[in-house]
Amino acid sequence: MPFMIIKPKVRGFICITAHPEGCMSHIQEQVDYVRAQQPLKNAPRRVLVIGASTGYGLASRIVATIGGHADTFGIFYERPGEDNKPASAGWYNSVAFEKVAQAYGVKAFSMNGDAFSKDFKNKAVKALKEKIGSVDCIIYSLAAPQRVDVTGDVYKSVLKPVGQKFSGKTVNTDKAEVFETTIESATEDEILHTKKVMGGEDWEAWIRLLEQEKLLANGVTALAYSYIGPEITWPIYKDGTIGRAKEHLAQTAETLNQFLHSQLQGRALISVNKAVVTQASSAIPVVPLYISILFKVMKAKGLHEDCVQQMYRLFAALFDNLSIKKESETCIRLDDLELMPEVQSEVKAIWQGINSGNLFELSDFRGYQENFLKLFGFGFKDVDYEQDVDPKRTFLNLMD
Question: Catalytic residues, which ones?
Answer without folding.
Answer: 237
